[in-house]
Recover the amino acids of this structure.
């Protein structure tokens, strides 16, 4: 989500990234908020540290928990959050939901949109909190947890607003019967399903949580937000802002509650299995995701793990392609669910209008581009961000033992601003198409696999198989041949995987824009839901039609 | 679905029903098809009997089956249907689905609408086939399996047409970046989920099957139709008509296949569990419905059993109310999924503007109205139709042993046209609110329970509890008090049950009109789907968005 000036070289990008001036009128850029906003945001964030978070409008806590550690400083944040018994949370939600469910959708849309305006006032607090819980760079933290998350929230509100008004709320039905007619007054109500639960993850605690929250709220369901215990602060600030706006407008703040817990005493299963919890949104690993999906009587929306592929067939400008891909795999150290992992390249190399590029040359160019990017003092640390947790770092280190040829061993990278930051350059391995035991798994984090295939058809076959068996959220493909493009589209789309073709310059496969790109299709094992199509909304309520003989 | 002239007495209704003349210009009435249509339809139907059904465009059968018996004549129909191995059916469906899935929705809508025109040519054949498999009266058979089923099919086509065009198929996305902009060409495709299976029931073999068939087809999925072995002919005629229109328009007729089987060798589970079958529509009992819903990796739409309630609180005109209810419980001998079963009446009786009607008087009036209806030689047999199978008849007979006070013992009723017809008048029992072991179950067929409650609040509480625990498709309520009306609406809607208030005259709670009433809400145990809301359509395909850097 880092967007830089149009240059086809990393040096140019560095310059643009450094300047950043021309973004100042785009709300997705921090500069748009004035020159002092950043410094004030850091101050404001620091004032939250080492104390209880008391901004929520929830009472009756039975204790306080908090275990967040900054991937940049390796220090504890020291913020604690109130803990509530599961039954209290659900009881409060049910009570608050009664009138919320009857509030007309237009009124709900109005107050929910106002909550987004309020959240905007905290963009810099949220950005710093995101940075120091997830390890995202400041820029990504700002954009992903700020304007881009709000965009997705607004998208859910807008889609709900549309779908809930799909049928008339009242009408007179008349059936001609010859000399007379039968007349019925009919009304149609979108009845909310019940209490919603949104389970967050540690890498995108706001961006992945807001769509579920706002989809539940616009459809009249009260919502309980259960963040990852290592990334509570960013979403706590958002929930607090929502609660205050609700209360100011005369609504019960318990329509949206925070349910913090600790790693030692997780409440996620207890919440998920509560009979009054009817809707569950989940982002995270597949094991827990499959458990949530299997719960009887729940409507569940998941984003789980996937294995994203890049299919390289032919290119116009190899350097532009390689720059783009090197950035894609480095951005936030491969911790985006949209990051590519498996690169399928034919053993004969890539064709171009100017002749063939041998397989080994492509691999070398890719390696060199990553090395140049991560070692660039102005660019490397800022692009990589920090590795969110120690397990991911261990996985990256252990990747050297996976087998295959080590093209690039992952190494520590210095962040000049934060000397203790957990920064790690991508590990790149070359494997053969027979090494499916290596590449048939999500290797979350800074790990990239280059898979040598017989030809592009073989690449497509393997990428399709991966998506079908293990799920995929993205697929990048490079080809200059229309018939190959059609084949890739058909095959990958048939396993419900979207394809981004020939991206170069300042747009990457990792990026999905609200109001324009669906995020996850919901059709393969990477998840069963999509931000934000009709299904993401309409499964949260039930149409009920009543009728009465008209007098 | 029998519609008669506006009279508040059964005698008036008989007259209207007998005359039927003023309906002649409404396509839901047989008279609209000319004076000879009926006789020709009987002839045409009789020509189908006692021979193999060879109108399907499917080949490679491994045998022929057929076991239908007319509930009117108790004779076997003698029609046999080709049997195909499950794998062949699915392989054919997958192959046919490839091009069908890529056919633009506008073309699909056009040819599907043409299939409905063709089906219309067979309305009388289908009506006779329905009558002699389900036991419905001729009029109900004609309407339910003919124009009303086609209406529901058209509704599915129209809803699909709308939902599939919800997002643009192509667009140019441009993101301003200051001195330049990023441009992406994007396309959005509604990718069909895979092979659809529609499992039919023995009482409404066409009406309950067409929505699933057409919802699958409009969204690009090939469909396999698995009818109940005792009610194949009506839907076989429809599938054959669909196949011929598909072929005439250059499409593969295997887009819609019939999968007949026999009671001894059912193929429903094998079909349901086939990995390529992704969509299942099911109508029938809850045990099998729950099994289908539990299958992993399938998108399932069910209509199962439910217990429908009538809440009687207060009335303006007790006789009009009782006439309406007597007809509702008698129509097709309670074999409609929308038929009321449990009548909740306060022990203090009903209030009216003219004073109180004691409980026992209400019960007596209800009994008398049923007796008058079923014993009316012009009306009784035609309203009751015939009981589809022996199990239902046994259940009605055994109901006398359920406990409670027998208000009306079910008795055989003579059908003058068909002396062997299995016709049975409703059994009516009075039970106390403590007899929940009796009324907490679906007693499918001509069985009615009157439950004496403390007061209307108690009635509402019990009706709500029934809907929540056992499901409900309809609820009829009678009250002249606005605050009670609101309470009933709120409570029943909260368990996703629609309420029909104060129906009298020629409209009954059993009736749901296409394009106006949802059939089943999908929110309680009576089923997880609804004819035809957005969800019934959008769960059958997946939105996939592709993009490419614009040159």
């Amino acid at each position: 989500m880092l967007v830089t000036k149009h240059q086809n070289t990393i040096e140019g990008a560095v310059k643009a990234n450094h300047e950043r001036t021309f973004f100042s009128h785009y709300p997705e850029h921090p500069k748009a908020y004035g020159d002092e906003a950043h410094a004030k945001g850091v101050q404001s964030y620091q004032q939250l540290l080492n104390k209880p978070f008391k901004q929520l409008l929830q009472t009756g806590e039975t204790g306080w928990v908090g275990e967040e550690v900054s991937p940049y400083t390796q220090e504890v944040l020291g913020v604690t959050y109130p803990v509530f018994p599961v039954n209290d949370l659900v009881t409060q939600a049910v009570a608050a939901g009664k009138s919320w469910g009857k509030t007309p959708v237009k009124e709900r849309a109005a107050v929910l949109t106002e909550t987004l305006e309020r959240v905007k006032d905290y963009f810099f607090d949220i950005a710093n909190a995101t940075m120091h819980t997830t390890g995202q760079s400041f820029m990504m933290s700002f954009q992903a947890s700020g304007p881009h998350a709000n965009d997705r929230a607004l998208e859910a509100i807008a889609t709900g607003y549309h779908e809930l008004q799909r049928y008339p709320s009242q009408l007179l039905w008349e059936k001609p019967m010859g000399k007379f007619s039968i007349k019925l007054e009919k009304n149609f109500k979108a009845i909310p399903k019940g209490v919603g639960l949104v389970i967050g993850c540690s890498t995108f605690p706001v961006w992945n949580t807001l769509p579920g929250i706002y989809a539940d709220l616009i459809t009249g369901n009260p919502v309980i937000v259960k963040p990852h215990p290592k990334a509570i602060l960013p979403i706590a600030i958002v929930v607090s802002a929502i609660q205050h706006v609700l209360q100011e407008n005369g609504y019960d703040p318990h329509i949206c509650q925070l349910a913090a817990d600790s790693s030692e005493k997780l409440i996620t299963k207890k919440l998920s299995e509560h009979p009054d919890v009817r809707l569950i949104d989940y982002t995270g690993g597949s094991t827990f995701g499959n458990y949530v999906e299997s719960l009887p009587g729940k409507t569940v929306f998941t984003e789980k793990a996937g294995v994203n592929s890049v299919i390289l067939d032919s290119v116009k400008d190899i350097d532009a392609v390689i720059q783009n891909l090197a950035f894609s795999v480095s951005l936030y150290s491969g911790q985006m669910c949209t990051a590519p992992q498996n690169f399928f390249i034919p053993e004969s190399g890539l064709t171009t209008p100017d002749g063939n590029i041998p397989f080994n040359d492509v691999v070398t160019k890719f390696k060199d581009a990553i090395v140049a990017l991560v070692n660039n003092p102005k660019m490397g640390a800022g692009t990589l961000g920090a590795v969110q947790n120690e397990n991911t770092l261990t996985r990256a280190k252990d990747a050297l033992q996976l087998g295959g040829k080590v093209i690039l061993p992952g190494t520590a990278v210095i962040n000049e601003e934060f000397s203790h930051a957990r920064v790690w350059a991508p590990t790149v391995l070359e494997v053969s198409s027979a090494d499916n035991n290596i590449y048939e798994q999500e290797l979350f984090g800074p790990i990239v696999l280059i898979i040598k295939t017989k030809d592009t058809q073989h690449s497509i076959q393997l990428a399709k198989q991966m998506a079908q068996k293990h799920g995929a959220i993205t697929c990048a493909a490079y080809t200059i041949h229309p018939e190959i493009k059609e084949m890739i589209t058909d095959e990958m789309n048939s396993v419900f995987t979207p394809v981004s073709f020939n991206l170069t310059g300042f747009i990457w496969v990792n990026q999905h824009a609200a109001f324009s790109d669906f995020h996850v299709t919901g059709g393969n094992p990477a998840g069963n839901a999509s931000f934000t199509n009709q299904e993401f909304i309409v499964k949260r309520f039930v149409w009920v039609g009543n009728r009465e003989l008209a007098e």
